[in-house]
Amino acid sequence: MSQSPLAPPPQTGQPIDSWLYLLWRRLTATGQMLWSSIVPGTSADVAAVVTDETGSPGSLVFSGNPTLGQLTVTGLVNVGDTTAPAGLTQLALMLSTNTTAGSPFFLRKSCDAVNGPNFTFLKSRGTAASPTAVSSGDIFGGLIFSAFDGTNYTNGAQVISYVDGAVSAGVVPASVRILTGNSSGVVTEGMRVDSTQTVTLGGINTAPALKVTPAASQARWIEVTAATSSTHPKMAASGGSLEITSGINLPIATNTGATLTITDAHHTIIQTTAASVYTLPTASSYTGRCLRVVTQFAGTVTSASSNVVPLAGGAAGTAILAATAGKWADLQSDGTNWVIVASN
Known about the structure:
Distance between the termini: 121 Å
Strand content: 25-35%
Strand order of the largest sheet: 5-6-7-8-9-10-11-12-13
């Protein structure tokens, strides 16, 4: 008996019949693969499906058939706009949209537990079928932020994790680094947290602007070093105390003029000749800051404003040092005035 051209072929459970059934579905539902219509136990015998159909967009739904519970794609997959990004190499998957609202990518996990969705990077040497252990210095994975510069998409910032030590069973030391691009287009490391919980800021690990190192020998202690050179200070803190384990370098300057404006670069000022009037910083902007003033000349040192409280207390005035060589005074801002806290 002949069949109608639009009727489905008979299902006998043989793989060839399953392929004929899928072909019929493709011919009668152009551009769509309705998996929920595939008969379990018959068409489920199909191990793979290849399609190059075009037409109305549809849905690919895996429903009620565990043997169709995965999708393997060899090659590039585009979701959304398929325009290739200039300056970047696509290897497997691109999610793209031209709309201003929403996000092209979501991870959702709904369950009655504390667990949330996560994004996992898997790194090995060898192959996927036969992986081997990673080595120190290998990159776990990273997030790279690129933006269009008018010609290509250019790397502007990165968050990268590296293997940071010897690897053994159950042990993979790691560091996380944050890199940012400067106005010249150079992307450099700005922050690192290594496998010892040492944090470095503002430069490469050998010469950071700030380095915070946990000291395991003291509970809750940290060591702060301005650089690895022994000429820079080290500080250790525990609770409310601060211990300085090497010398402190503070700015010192001489003044020979009749006036001086105190800046952030000043700490100790030595007046060598002539009386002088100092313009002190606004006390409210430098609460807690300290200054030391010394005169080697028999001339007064005064403030340009009435913002100096004498050592004995009282109203703020202008006097800092009397006209006697060898006089000195330590001043500290209380947020309102500069208070002389020590002098001779």
